[in-house]
Amino acid sequence: MAALRACVSVNRLTLVIKYSSCRSCAVSSRTPYSTVTNPSEKTFDKILIANRGEIACRVIKTCKKMGIQTVAVHSDVDSSAVHVKMADEAVCVGPAPTSKSYLNMDTIMDAIRLTGAQAVHPGYGFLSENKEFAKRLAAECVTFIGPDTHAIQAMGDKIESKLIAKAANVNTIPGFDGVVKTAEDAVKIAQQIGYPVMIKASAGGGGKGMRIAWNDDETREGFRFSSQEAASSFGDDRLLIEKYIDNPRHIEIQVLADKHGNALWLNERECSIQRRNQKVVEEAPSTFLDADTRRVMGEQAVQLAKAVKYSSAGTVEFLVDSKKNFYFLEMNTRLQVEHPITECITGLDLVEQMIRIAKGYQLQQKQEDIPINGWAIESRVYAEDPYKSFGLPSIGRLSQYQEPLNLSSVRVDSGIEEGSDINIYYDPMISKLVTYGATRAEALARMEDALDNYVIRGVTHNIPLLREIITHPRFVSGDISTNFLPEVYPEGFKGHHLDEDRCRELLASAAALHVTSQLCSHKILGSQRVSPAPVDQNHWELCVALGQELHDMKITISGNSYTVDMDGGQVEVSGDWNLANPLLPLTINGTCRMLQCLSRESSGTIVLQYMGTLFKVRVLSKLTAELNSYMPEKVSEDTSSILRSPMPGTVVAMSVKPGDTVAEGQEICVIEAMKMQNSLTAVKQAKVKSVHCQPGETVGEGDLLVELE
């Protein structure tokens, strides 16, 4: 306890409150959800949040509205995290690895005793669906803000939950209703069910421990990886196998139940846009469901909740085929990541409801009181490289960070700030960006603006992918499924494709920015200096390079406006040209565009974010462009004979040694990042020349792992 007390910071002031009036997701005066505290309803004096990041901040926000003191727990690397600053008290519960901190029940129980917390909100992930943690809290008369241990156990085990769902007359997916013990057993069962099959962790969730297999070899491989991921993420390597519903939608029902037998369904969330079985973009309601299907799904979700005497907020997930047949997938006995969009369309604060229910109060609403008001969309903003398998983790420090809270009807749930570190120990989520509108079209337009106005520097992020998704014609029309990403981008995500008009807009903007920079450079603090640009020059002839293409252009300046003649067309660009602002609002041929300038170099190289994607443009004088044509081209590295790590992570397996001969597609090693295991394979048949890492070692993105002859 002495060591624990040394990590304690008591009675912290709230240094960061990340919600503003603009964050209200409001149309006119409507708020996205309300926390209306009834003074006669006594809940808790102090709640400990057994989590970190954005969900810890989200719970603290509602607790403050309800007049409840909060305790944050944190690892040593999270000592300056936003959730720690927001809480009234904070306790260090161990070093960075989750097994030694956020999953360490002993130190968390010590923190509860030390601070006198009366209740614990687990958030999502970590211990949120751990029945042993809930039992330990109950043994010490501390309230677990969630369902009881029976419901956690029943729904946390996918095998048991499926049997209970069948008994409750909930539609279920055909499959094997037992534990799969070996890889060969898995093959036999898969053959009996019929390919394709889904292999998944019995105790799993969040896309971890899940693999789709289309043949016997993939079943064996899927069994190995799924069991390893399940053991790493949940401490339980049991697996089940069921029929894979090809090309389905993933639609879930939010339920809310109290301890008095009352239960409601709070409409649905469409969660079909996924990569590696993890959600990327969600919306509420779904474009696909009609009122009757919604009602039947909601009623079946409530039947299941009542069957396990559920009491709290929970989510019943379904797969829905093209004919609107739906099948039970799993029940998450916790607050869901994407709960904000339900709050936006119903007006309910789900965290407040969980706290009230945990204290024993009845639900205040009836089923007929639950509305669908407007439309809400959530984009999960991750520190990931979307050009690698639609998102492999990226680490780094946020050197510049600016949320688009100046826009109306925008909500950002985040647990980071400028200067925060994104590391290999935890989920790489930066924030949940939510927009609300009276209609879906309005919500989508606001999401597009919010993504364009979101400033993130220091880490690679997935905004380019998010923006392409929400503006893609298939998504806009509602023609989506869980196979959306591989179908739309069969060769992988490549960024925004520039048509002729958009290309001219980008190049003209880069040229105008370059000229503005040159004209500004002749003064420093009001003093004259030598400049390559005459002060009164208003006509320029330049060459702008994008990739291998070179474009000649003539530029005429009039005040803050530029007329750019290029490629037989003319582009008018105007703006305030504040070079110190990371955002670059421009009017291009009468259309408002929001660009971002990430860097400007004296060589004329400019990196612009346009339509969500980063483009590297070079603006050159005529002479420089001519001389540049004589420069030798840099020879690209031959990547067929080397294997570099595509992401930061830990080597969990090395399958080869020097002298081995590997076939094309053969596994060389396995890298684990954020609890997800990634198998790296050979791109050709070759002999292993050298191995540069061993299992257990931490590697960075681009580190050399293996050389082939």
In brief:
Pathway: Metabolic intermediate metabolism; propanoyl-CoA degradation; succinyl-CoA from propanoyl-CoA: step 1/3. By secondary structure, the chain is of the alpha+beta class.
Give an overview of the whole structure:
This is Propionyl-CoA carboxylase alpha chain, mitochondrial. Its EC number is 6.4.1.3. Its cofactor is biotin. InterPro entries: ATP-grasp, ATP_grasp_subdomain_1, BC-like_N, Biotin_BS, Biotin_carboxylase_complex, Biotin_carboxylation_dom, Biotin_COase_C, Biotin_lipoyl. Pathway: Metabolic intermediate metabolism; propanoyl-CoA degradation; succinyl-CoA from propanoyl-CoA: step 1/3. The chain is an alpha+beta fold. It has 6 domains: 46-145, 3-Layer(aba) Sandwich (Rossmann fold); 174-243, ATP-grasp fold, A domain (Dna Ligase, domain 1, 2-Layer Sandwich), CATH 3.30.1490; 247-373, D-amino Acid Aminotransferase, Chain A, domain 1 (2-Layer Sandwich), CATH 3.30.470.20; 377-490, 2-Layer Sandwich (D-amino Acid Aminotransferase, Chain A, domain 1), CATH 3.30.470.20; 500-521 and 536-629, Glycoprotein, Type 4 Pilin (2-Layer Sandwich); 642-708, RNA polymerase II/Efflux pump adaptor protein, barrel-sandwich hybrid domain (OB fold (Dihydrolipoamide Acetyltransferase, E2P), Beta Barrel). The chain has 18 helices and 42 strands. The strands form 11 sheets. An 8-stranded antiparallel β-sheet has the order 14-13-10-11-12-16-23-21, sandwiched between helices. It has an 8-stranded antiparallel beta barrel with strand order 27-28-29-30-31-32-33-34. Strands 4-3-2-5-6 form a 5-stranded parallel β-sheet, sandwiched between helices. It is globular. The protein starts with a helix and ends with a strand. Mean pLDDT is 90; it is low at 1-31.
